[in-house]
Write a structure and sequence with these properties.
The protein is an all-beta fold. It contains no helices and 32 strands. The strands form eight sheets. It has a four-stranded antiparallel β-sheet with strand order 1-32-31-30, with no helix packed on it. It has a four-stranded antiparallel β-sheet with strand order 2-3-4-5, with no helix packed on it. A four-stranded antiparallel β-sheet has the order 6-7-8-9, with no helix packed on it.
């Protein structure tokens, strides 16, 4: 395989600590501790670069607006995605975390039980509703015409407009207690929740009972990729299950499992998997490594660009990357910038059994 870096941007901080959001034609990045930067997807050209607080607890996009919730100052800011102009800001209680945006509302709060949960009008930042006391919620997710929240053994689909409950589900075990994602969507009417020690539960609209529940080996996080639910297992690679019933499909083989995996994206008739040793592995449809190459630095996260390419959050950088098979350009590389991009060919190694 050959890795082509179309463009790359130095973050001047650890990539794993950098919040980001990918839009239709741009990427919004937090970098240099206090800067929020918007770059063009095509070539990495800077669209705007503004100061906006330290270490965001969340960045969310909605239409032509970007919502940012920094750790300091205690402000929720709404920025014009096209120009970088600050449209409005709203004071938030200290330690406010969790930000999710719908078409016309942004919901914040509930992080670790420190603050109330509040819904604000996306147009002007006006408060639409707020809970009467602090609430504890896992990381929220915009889904099903509302916002998924949860605590303990209960999941609630909240109406973003008024804070009322649209649907509720009781779980057989408490939800994961972590800052990362606890829900992953399975289309528009079903989702998976992580609960217990290492379990997944599939829930859906129109039913109070789980579609299925599966118990697995311990995993750090999970996501939906290429029609399957992938579980990231520390130092042992991936385990995938069927989203229809939770049955096991396959797990990654020798080589990939020895590294801390950083994400997976669909590629040709298989998948690409990043690892913290800088390796990018190409997996077949059965999850076994077919070939590998190296980016040359630790990979913290891989993001599907949705256009045949991918974005990589690496050690101190964010890059637009394409991977092609040797002698067979199955994924055309993005256009490289004449000023900010560079092309790098990296020799392919075959994965060893």
């Amino acid at each position: 395989m050959i890795v082509t870096i179309a463009w790359e941007r130095a973050l001047h901080q650890r990539g794993a600590l950098s919040a980001y959001a990918v839009g239709e034609d741009c990427v919004v990045l937090h970098e240099r501790r206090t800067r929020l930067v918007c770059v063009e997807r095509a070539d990495g050209t800077v669209r705007w670069d503004i100061p906006l607080g330290t270490w965001p607890r969340g960045i969310a996009l909605s239409g032509d607006r970007v919502l940012v919730l920094p750790q300091e100052p205690d402000l929720l800011s709404c920025v014009d995605l096209r120009t970088g102009e600050l449209l409005w800001s709203a004071r938030t209680p200290r330690f406010t975390g969790g930000v999710v945006a719908t078409e016309d509302t942004v919901v914040v709060g509930g992080w670790r039980g420190y603050t109330p949960m509040t819904g604000l009008d996306l147009a002007d930042g006006r408060v639409r509703w707020t809970t009467t006391s602090p609430v504890h919620s896992v990381q929220p997710l915009a889904w099903g015409g509302g916002v998924l929240t949860g605590s303990g053994a209960e999941v609630v689909l909240v109406d973003a407009h008024d804070g009322s409950g649209l649907a509720r589900w009781r779980l057989p075990e408490p939800l994961f207690q972590r800052d990362g994602a606890v829900f992953t969507p399975l289309g528009t009417d079903r989702f998976v929740a992580g609960c217990g020690q290492a379990s997944l539960v599939a829930l859906g609209l129109g039913s109070d009972e789980p579609d299925w529940r599966g118990a697995y080996e311990p995993f750090a996080r999970f996501e939906s990729v290429g029609g399957a639910v992938w579980m990231h297992r520390p130092r042992t690679g991936f385990l995938t299950v069927d989203p229809a019933d939770g049955t096991r499909l396959w797990s990654t083989g020798t080589g990939v499992g020895q590294q801390r995996v950083a994400g997976a994206v669909p590629h040709a008739d298989g998948f690409l998997v990043g690892a913290d040793n800088g390796g990018i592995y190409r997996l077949g449809s059965d999850g076994q490594a077919v070939s590998r190459c190296s980016l040359g630095r630790r990979i913290d996260e891989m993001i599907d660009a949705g256009d045949g390419g991918l974005f990589v959050m690496a050690k101190g950088t964010f890059a637009s990357v394409a991977v092609t098979a040797r002698g067979n350009a199955t994924v055309p590389p993005p256009a490289a910038s004449a000023t900010s991009g560079r092309l790098t060919d990296i020799t392919t190694d075959r994965a060893r059994p």
